[in-house]
Design goal:
It comes from Dicentrarchus labrax. One of its GO terms (cellular component) is lysosomal membrane. This protein is α+β, with helices and mostly antiparallel strands and 791 residues long. Strand 24 and strand 25 form a beta hairpin. The chain is globular and about 95 Å long.
């Protein structure tokens, strides 16, 4: 045990001195308590019950209270308390429900004095009255608190908290008759020991069990509470209603809280699990601990200040079977490692930047913030003592505002409200979202949705031509896809020539009929290209055409059709083309001589094999005209990353949800979780709660889907006897009455139940809404006047 530092504190008639030191225990400790003169400490646990002397250099074992060959469960302690007026008097809370007092002045080895076995379950806490020698209070897992007079053999008062478990009880330091009790349902109750029938005040302090509470030693009305919600709250009890005046957010459940002597705003805490450190907080600065003790290697189970007037020594016991004395001067100061720089974006694009004042003050061009000079130090200090105050750190704040009109987020809200993420086929979702983006003047996003539909939609099934269709004579030909139907104009003359021997005109040809499902007019080109799922399929024989050929054919054909017009009589009649021509020269000669074919098309025709009878035709494909969806996944992944990097996580998350399994495996889970959390945070900042919940529900990331599964437990009390309801049914186990009866129809409400937070009466939502249309008073006849916000 290395000597770290030493301090001597002068007290009224004695002196407390020592250093940071520790000793190993025989077993893990559950609780510790110190005697009045700060010279001895008692350590209690399931398998340990010893008293150690606090000497200047070390702990010295003085007495082992576990005597006998087979110690009973009365020695298995959950809590221990050393009386602050009687130095020989101890009290322990046993795990078997017993409350035991110990008299150290007894000459025998067994120091047990009195045994109270009135509790039916484990006793969690015992507490002596600060000024009354013979008064002892206990709180048990059975939901009852009992007050004992040590001169009698049984309890003198029993207090029912109407809850499952009492976790802590503490007598007020300034009010003789008052004590506070904390419960597992999140409530804190204040009782008068003269009135055991009903509490004086009750309020909900935490969202979950309240594990500890402690009255301020100097300020009469301050009560500190700690709970499983990882918060320490300070309440002002001098007002009519308990008022929260300070709140400290920790990183784990708070198991113990103790005010620091002689320091009004300091308190010490330790955690029930995960975190092994002891923290001392300044409640005025709740975001960073004032001091930290990091010696323990396992959960700290008990903390106590060595003397009620000495703020420099803290004692602690732990599950790592060690007992420590911490000297405050040796504590770690987290503020020394704090970063004085900060950066944050506002909801509408404003940027706030904080940095050391020395760095900002050197900038001569810096203009003050319009709202006033924001260069305030983080804290102002009245006392110069650096060991008892936070390090003097001051930062200058600069705010960079953006033009509100150019950075409005109306599009974000409207897009979130109008987007469809599920409930319809994939193609309809894409079309709807593309239309929404187009209406909000976001063409790039709209085009992205359209391309996603084209990439991932199922191929369109073309209708098989009927038996009388003239193209049935052509047989099956190879297929080639294109993006436009303009190329169809290049074969008008060819197809007309095939049937001209039958006297059919070009306008009567089946390929040119407006109702033909296999072809669309030129003025419908844009709809086919952007919005339709139907695919245009073109026949070019076995010859391959590149994009340049298609492009040149398109423009040449348009020019030919616009400039060339000729009466039907100008065509010379020719012989009918046979099904199986003997040579391809006829087709090639006729094709080259046709006035409906451009020069580029004639050149392409020369490459057509002898099996082909037409440049462009429609038939059944020999291969799939669509690329597999997995082909597009890499580019879609890059697209989503682009949108996320640009700050549009709305688009990235929406596409993730709509595509689902098509793209989910291409993006790692951490990236998806980051996108989801960013989008959900934005939605909640804009108060789009329903959209946020829908995104969580539809999420493909397991870490996100569990977000709306937290804090879903609803504790219900019977409206008649006020006792907690079980999960077995609608009938209360105690009063045997139905708890959820509609105040209007007097039937049991088995579905959605709505009630008034003022009088607790309610019923079916529809019935209550209809009642409120004609009356503002409670339908149960209690006389309560309903307030709209309570519903």
């Amino acid at each position: 045990m290395e000597k770290m530092s030493r301090v001597t504190t002068a007290l009224s008639s004695s002196a407390v001195s020592g250093r940071t030191m520790f000793c190993h225990l025989d077993a893990p400790a559950n609780a510790i308590s110190v005697c009045r003169d700060a010279t001895q400490v008692v350590v209690a646990g399931r398998n340990i019950f010893k008293i150690y002397a606090l000497e200047e250099e070390q702990f010295v074992e003085k007495l082992n209270l576990r005597v006998g060959r087979k110690p009973s469960l009365n020695f298995s302690c959950a809590d221990v308390m050393w009386h602050q007026m009687e130095e020989n008097l101890l009290a322990t809370a046993a795990t078997n429900g017993a409350v035991v007092t110990w008299n150290l002045g007894k000459p025998s080895r067994n120091k047990q004095d009195q045994l109270f076995t009135e509790h039916k379950r484990t006793v969690n806490k015992v507490c002596f009255h600060p000024t009354e020698v013979y008064m002892l209070l206990s709180g048990s897992q059975d939901g009852f608190m009992k007050c004992f007079d040590l001169r009698k053999k049984e309890s003198v008062s029993t207090f029912s908290g109407q809850s499952e478990s009492v976790r802590d009880v503490q007598f007020s330091m300034k009010d003789y008759f008052t004590f506070a009790a904390s419960f597992e349902n999140g409530n804190v109750q204040l009782w008068d020991i003269r009135r055991p029938d009903r509490y004086e005040r009750m309020f909900t302090a935490h969202t979950g069990p309240v594990f500890c509470c402690d009255w301020h030693p100097d300020d009469r009305g301050w009560l500190a509470t700690g709970g499983r919600d990882k918060m320490v709250k300070v309440w002002d009890m001098t007002t009519n209603r308990a008022k929260e005046i300070y709140c400290v957010q920790t990183i784990a459940s708070v198991a113990r809280v103790k005010w620091r002597p002689e320091r009004k705003f300091h308190l010490a805490t330790c955690s029930m699990m995960v975190d092994h450190n002891i923290y001392v907080w300044d409640v005025r600065r709740p975001f960073i601990p004032f001091a930290t003790f990091e010696e323990h290697k396992d959960v700290t189970t008990g903390i106590v200040w060595r003397h009620q007037h000495d703020p420099h020594f803290l004692l602690s016991g732990s599950k790592d079977s060690t007992l420590y004395q911490h000297m405050f001067r040796d504590a770690t100061r987290p503020v020394d490692k704090a970063n004085p720089e900060g950066l944050c974006f506002g909801l509408f694009g404003d940027l706030a930047f904080a940095a050391k004042e020395s760095l900002i003050s050197s900038d001569a061009n810096r203009k003050p913030y319009p709202g006033g000079d924001r260069r305030y130090p983080i804290f102002f200090f009245k006392k110069p003592d650096p060991t008892e105050q936070f390090a003097h750190v001051s930062s200058a704040l600069s705010v960079f505002e953006t033009d509100l009109d150019s950075n409005r987020m109306d599009w974000f809200v409207k897009t979130a409200q109008l987007y469809l993420l599920s409930g319809k086929p994939f193609a309809e979702l894409c079309d709807h979202n593309a239309k929404v983006a187009q209406e909000l003047k976001r063409p790039q996003v709209s085009t992205t949705w359209t391309m996603l539909r084209i990439m991932f939609s199922d191929p369109a099934n073309l209708t098989t031509p009927g038996p009388n269709h003239n193209l049935s004579k052509l047989g099956t030909l190879p297929l080639m896809n294109s993006f436009s139907m303009k190329e169809m104009g290049s074969v008008m003359g060819t197809e007309s020539r095939l049937d001209r021997s039958k006297g059919e005109s070009r306008q009567d040809n089946i390929l040119l009929e407006p109702g033909n499902p296999h072809i669309s007019n030129n003025n419908e080109e844009n709809e086919e290209t952007e919005g339709s799922e139907g695919q245009a399929e073109y026949m070019f024989g076995d010859a391959e055409l590149d994009d340049d050929d298609l492009y040149s054919m398109e423009h040449d054909n348009q020019t030919e059709e616009q400039e060339y017009t000729l009466p039907q009589e100008a065509f010379q009649l020719r012989h009918e083309i046979m099904d199986n021509p003997s040579a391809p020269e006829h087709l090639q000669q006729d094709k080259a001589d046709s006035p409906h074919v451009s020069g580029n098309e004639a050149e392409v025709t020369c490459l057509t094999p002898i099996e082909s009878f037409s440049l462009i035709s429609i038939s059944q494909p020999l291969f799939s005209p669509h690329l597999p969806a997995s082909f597009f996944c890499p580019i879609v992944r890059e697209m989503l990353s682009y949108y996320a990097e640009q700050g549009d996580v709305q688009m990235a998350v929406s596409v993730l949800i709509v595509l689902g399994d098509r793209i989910r495996k291409e993006i790692d889970d951490l990236t998806q979780e980051h996108w989801y959390m960013s989008y959900i945070d934005l939605l909640q900042r804009f108060e789009l709660w329903n959209v946020s919940n829908e995104v969580i529900k539809l999420s493909t990331c397991s870490a996100i889907t569990c977000l709306n599964q937290a804090s879903t437990t609803l504790h219900i009390n019977c409206s008649n006897c006020k006792r907690p309801m079980s999960n077995k049914g609608w009938i209360c186990d105690r009063c045997h009455q139905c708890a959820s009866v509609c105040a209007v129809c007097h039937h049991v409400v088995k579905g959605l139940f709505v009630w008034c937070q003022g009088c607790s009466h309610g019923g079916h939502l529809e019935h209550i809404m209809n009642w409120l249309k004609s009356s503002a008073h409670c339908p149960a006849g209690c006389g309560h006047l309903y307030v709209t916000r309570l519903w």
